[in-house]
Amino acid sequence: MTIPRLNIRHELPRISIRQEQSRLDESSVNLADLHTENRQARSNKGITQSSMQLDNYPSRRAWGARNMDDFTRENGQKGLSNAQSDASRRTQEAWDRIENGAKRGNDLAQKFKSDLFAPYSSAENLVEFNLMPEPEVTAQPARVVGESDEGDVTVKINAPSQANLHFTPGHAETHLADKGYIRRWVTQGNYDIMA
């Protein structure tokens, strides 16, 4: 008698997983902009030359050396008044000689002599002593002029308030690749190894 044999063949179910990793794209990060403005410092200062002006004309004038303006101003009026007084005096003398020249006791030679030496014997021509005025000296010392420029170094940083990052989230998909099975059958006398 043959013994029946139970044959079982099975296959487990298979799951397929398709997975994609999450990504962070760093190439889209905005970098900060840096701008620098540099103005060099400058002295901008200089020194003026010292100077001195010496006006010795008042001293020279006291000694009688006058410039043309003073000479013409002083002697122009004096010459005009002297010419007027001399013309008047000469006219008066001429009339006096016309009227009294032939009279007895009128000695014209003595009169000419006294008129000739009268300017040298008068008290007006005495020597006067005056102090000579000192020269006028005006001095200006050297001065530092100009304003310094301290310069400026300005750094401007333009940084975005947010990073411009591109994030791709990962995901996973699962599906049943094979359902699996269990098969059973009966053979007589031996197992079915081929099935």
What is the N-to-C order of secondary-structure elements (H for helix, E for strand)? EEEEEEHHHEEEEEE
Largest beta sheet: strand ordering = 1-12
* Structural category: alpha+beta
- Oligomer category: single chain
N-end to C-end Cα span: 24 Å
Largest sheet at a glance? Answer: 2 strands, antiparallel
Mean pLDDT: 81
Give the helix tally: 3
Give unreliable regions as ranges.
Answer: none
Characteristic key phrases:
195 residues; alpha+beta; two-stranded antiparallel ribbon; rod-shaped
Topology:
Blueprint (H helix, E strand, L loop, with lengths): L3 E8 L2 E7 L2 E3 L7 E7 L6 E2 L3 E5 L1 H6 L5 H33 L7 H14 L14 E5 L3 E2 L6 E7 L7 E3 L2 E8 L2 E8 L7
Antiparallel strand pairs: 1-12, 2-11, 3-10, 4-9, 5-8, 6-7
Protein architecture, described:
The protein is α+β, with helices and mostly antiparallel strands. Helix content is 27%, strand content 33%. The chain is built from three helices and twelve strands; from the N terminus they run E-E-E-E-E-E-H-H-H-E-E-E-E-E-E. It has helices at 57-62, 68-100, 108-121; strands at residues 4-11, 14-20, 23-25, 33-39, 46-47, 51-55, 136-140, 144-145, 152-158, 166-168, 171-178, 181-188. The strands form six sheets. It has a two-stranded antiparallel ribbon with strand order 1-12. Strands 2-11 form a two-stranded antiparallel sheet. The chain has a two-stranded antiparallel sheet with strand order 3-10. The longest helix has 33 residues, at 68-100. The chain is rod-shaped and about 225 Å long. The two termini are 24 Å apart. The mean pLDDT is 81.
